[in-house]
TrEMBL record:
Protein name as annotated: NADH-quinone oxidoreductase subunit B
Subcellular location: Cell membrane
Species the sequence originates in: Sorangium cellulosum
Molecular function via GO: 4 iron, 4 sulfur cluster binding; iron ion binding; NADH dehydrogenase (quinone) (non-electrogenic) activity; NADH dehydrogenase (ubiquinone) activity; quinone binding
HAMAP family: NDH1_NuoB
Tagged with keyword Cell membrane: yes
Domain NADH:ubiquinone oxidoreductase-like 20kDa subunit positions: 47-155
Residue positions binding [4Fe-4S] cluster: 47-48, 113, 142
Annotated coiled-coil segments of the chain: none
Classification via NCBIfam families: nuoB_fam, PRK06411.1
Catalytically driven reaction(s): a quinone + NADH + 5 H(+)(in) = a quinol + NAD(+) + 4 H(+)(out)
Known cofactor(s): [4Fe-4S] cluster
GO biological process terms, semicolon-separated: aerobic respiration; electron transport coupled proton transport
Length: 191
């Protein structure tokens, strides 16, 4: 008998001559299905769109995570990608789209502008989409690297599997303060 653990729930799989059925919990099975069948609505407004396109391209291949299908009707999507700067004038349209999506739904802030307004510290720009809609995942970066966005997607999938709705921020894969090149540069400057 084998065991698969995902999102805190364990599934027992019968192997060898025992194969034929598996046992699990209904909510774990549903969460597993939701995790691998995300239909995205891309709300793309600015330069982060280039990185979004890179992520959907064969090199980074979002399709590997079962989340590549864009739907241009919010009623057919459950993952809202907010990609780029959101102006005060766009904010009502974004809120309307979020409200038109069916539950359960998730939101990912792609880049610094969507997360907190970025360097646009002015009256025309929304200082983060969480001022108008709930956000599940924040991906920092101007623009974020596709790897960071994929980390955000995997983080979201992990949260879906666990039924966890607490917002989370994608951490850098490498702490810039500890990066070898930067440390060497700092040492050189001290000499
Ligand atoms: S985070 Fe940077 S790259 Fe992305 S939309 Fe804002 S200014 Fe453009």
């Amino acid at each position: 008998m084998g065991e698969i653990t995902s999102g805190g729930a364990s599934t027992r799989v019968l192997e060898g001559t025992e194969h034929g059925f598996a046992t699990t919990r209904v909510d774990a099975l549903l969460n597993w299905a939701k995790k691998y069948s995300l239909f995205q609505y891309p709300f793309v407004t600015a330069c982060c769109g280039m990185e979004y396109m890179a992520m959907a391209s064969p090199r980074f291949d979002m399709a590997r995570f079962g989340a590549e299908v864009p739907r241009f009707s919010p009623r057919q999507a459950d993952l809202l990608w907010v990609v780029g700067t959101i102006s005060q004038r766009q904010a009502p349209a974004l809120k309307r789209i979020y409200e038109q999506m069916a539950d359960p739904k998730w939101v990912l802030a792609f880049g610094t502008c969507a997360s907190c307004g970025g360097f646009y510290d002015n009256y025309t720009t929304l200082a983060g989409i969480d001022k108008i809609i709930p956000c599940d995942i924040y991906v920092p970066g101007c623009p974020p690297r596709p790897e960071a966005v994929l980390d955000g997607l995997m983080l979201l999938q992990d949260k879906i599997a666990r039924g966890d709705r607490t917002p989370a921020v994608v951490k850098p894969r490498e702490d810039p303060a500890q990066a070898e090149r930067l440390v060497a540069l700092q040492r050189k400057e001290r000499i």
